[in-house]
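Hi again,

Forgot to attach this to my earlier email, sorry! This is the prediction with molybdenum atom bound. I've pasted everything inline since the attachment limit keeps bouncing my files.
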Amino acid sequence: MLATVSDGVVTQLRGDPDHPVTRGFLCFRTSRFPELVAAGRIGQPLIRRHGRLEPATWDQALGLIAEKLLQVRSESGPAAIFHYRSGGSLGILKHLADLFFDQFGPCTGKVGDICSGAGEAAQLHDLGTSDSNDLFDLLHSRHIVLWGKNPAVSNVHLVPVLKDAQARGARLVLIDPVHHKSASLAEVALQPAPGRDYELALGIARELFDSGRIDPQAASFCDDLPAFRALAEARSVGEWAALAGVATEAVRQLADRFADGPTAILVGWGMQRRQRGGAIVRALDALAAISGNLFRSGGGVSFYFRRRKAFRAFGPVVKPPRVIREPLLGHDLLAATAPKVRVLWVTAGNPVAMLPDSATTARAIEATEFVVVADCFLTDTARRAHVVLPVPTLLEDSDLLGAYGHHWIGESRPVVQMPPGVKHEVAIFQELARRVGLADYPQDSIDQCKRNALADVAGQGASLDSLRKSGAVRSPVADPLLFRQGQVFTGTGRVQLLAEAPPEPQLELPPARPGASAPLWLFSNSTEKSQASQWSGKGLGALLPCTVHPEVVPNARDGQRARLVSAHGSLQVELRLDPAQRRDTAIVPKGGHFDRGQSANALIAARPTDLGLGAAYLDCLVRIVPE
Ligand SMILES: Nc1nc2c(c(=O)[nH]1)N[C@H]1C(S)=C(S)[C@@H](COP(=O)(O)OP(=O)(O)OC[C@H]3O[C@@H](n4cnc5c(=O)[nH]c(N)nc54)[C@H](O)[C@@H]3O)O[C@H]1N2
Ligand SMILES: Nc1nc2c(c(=O)[nH]1)N[C@H]1C(S)=C(S)[C@@H](COP(=O)(O)OP(=O)(O)OC[C@H]3O[C@@H](n4cnc5c(=O)[nH]c(N)nc54)[C@H](O)[C@@H]3O)O[C@H]1N2
Ligand SMILES: [Mo]
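Structure tokens for the complex follow:
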């Protein structure tokens, strides 16, 4: 990113025209990030006194924290301290927070990943890694399947690559129950039933088996081929299509695309946020493999880019004395005894708004004896803290970054000075380490921390100096083609095909109310205007918008107020009518604030996914009650 600064203020943010991926443009939310900062960041530490958060000095804040950490460790042991770190701006130096709690304890840690847990675990199981071919390998694709993915909103720098691929003849298909902006990129946009991608994938597989169009070598590079074949043959193509809620012909045409490769599957993140999320991604892995598209340039089944692979860890992997499951954080915090969790440290995340079952998360945090939140903003979570520590925004930060959607790595350096009351997180932990007597905690300069993280790749063209000179460097440890010569990275070297059908998801019916709609699948999808709970520009507005088909609520008017009711809670919304949507869905933005009554997670039960301890956010049914 490039920033224009005038009088110490960022007046414009844009993409770097020299960056191979960002090519001079940014997404809506990032280009307007300065407005978010101007609207109210925290400029000094806050300490709760007499029930209210009041300004304090760093000496008071860190003194209080050090005292509390030492007291709780000596009285209850380090397992009574829990450190929760989420994504934030994804900087690599933020991992130094983990090192602090490993050395101070080891303390209670988090397991699972509500973002990508199920999909990553699925791919790790099937392929031995969760990574992708080089982004630009898509230029060799004949077909690209956007399977439950909305790049026009959540991955904007993929869009020009898709368009370039199309200009070279690639044909694009979108598979998503929701009609969204990316539909206009695709030649076909299929809207299957929510959560039925397993059935859709097996229908395609059945058609490929029936017509003898699977890779003739499949048995040599796949384990469990007969079992996967038996799964596909459990139903006819027509039966699978009916279960998936699409026409039989549509399934056959998808099969034709897989047989006419190279065909790349770009696996979206939504469908793995379901109870069967792991099995769904496993079905897509299997489809890519048996159709002969896994090892080809222009093929692949791309979900994640291993953004941390190039960076050396700051310490050894430490086994925590106890773990809290991220998708069940509120529940696990409340249930933890022997010892109770007495200190909670939250960094780079807003769990009250973003984890499922917001009310329980909020209650669990409120019930914790001492809560520290490090953030730039007074979030739903920070508002419940005993101490709030203000950290730099991404425009003031100094860090290293891997990327979400490609293999380039880069350095961030401050374009403006942070306000005097704000501290870099590395400095916070270094100072705290001195106060609590951690003699081995690194007291290096930030540049030295960066050099340490780059030690493994510095000799391969990715030193700190080359990052500084070039702006961004392609990770030297990312092969342009992930798999070569029919080998994956599993124990056997062969793809582990899905061999068992996943169980049906368990769904809670929303209570019946007079005049209410039938149960609808609640989608809480990314919106252009925010990164999770960080809203840019004008923000979310007074009422949470909820998009539905006009026939979902009889006589509904656009803009009408209504209530969304689930088995867990209810929210006031403003209806947006869209005839392009299915009649069994209700779509709200992800990231609404809990204290404003706008968090979808107030409606969503905390339930883990089948693999990887993700959160099944999307297995949520609601009714609409007109007001
Ligand atoms: N503007 C913006 N961009 C973002 C983010 C943001 O908050 N705002 N968040 C970032 C983060 S944290 C992440 S993890 C990434 C990915 O963030 P996501 O927004 O999760 O990713 P996508 O894969 O683009 O979108 C998910 C898609 O899955 C679809 N979907 C849901 N259920 C199903 C299903 O059962 N079947 C099928 N086929 N599709 C389904 C949804 O309708 C949606 O279009 O994006 C990042 N980009
Ligand atoms: N219903 C529903 N819920 C979802 C999702 C969904 O699709 N639907 N998506 C899920 C996904 S994919 C994700 S990744 C999670 C995201 O969940 P979170 O990571 O909790 O989301 P954010 O709201 O981005 O919170 C990040 C916070 O970190 C702060 N921050 C930014 N940079 C830094 C930093 O350098 N240091 C520190 N200390 N703080 C920093 C920001 O100000 C912000 O308050 O939400 C999940 N929740
Ligand atoms: Mo995420």
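The mean pLDDT is 96. The two ends are 45 Å apart (CA to CA).

That should be everything now.

G.
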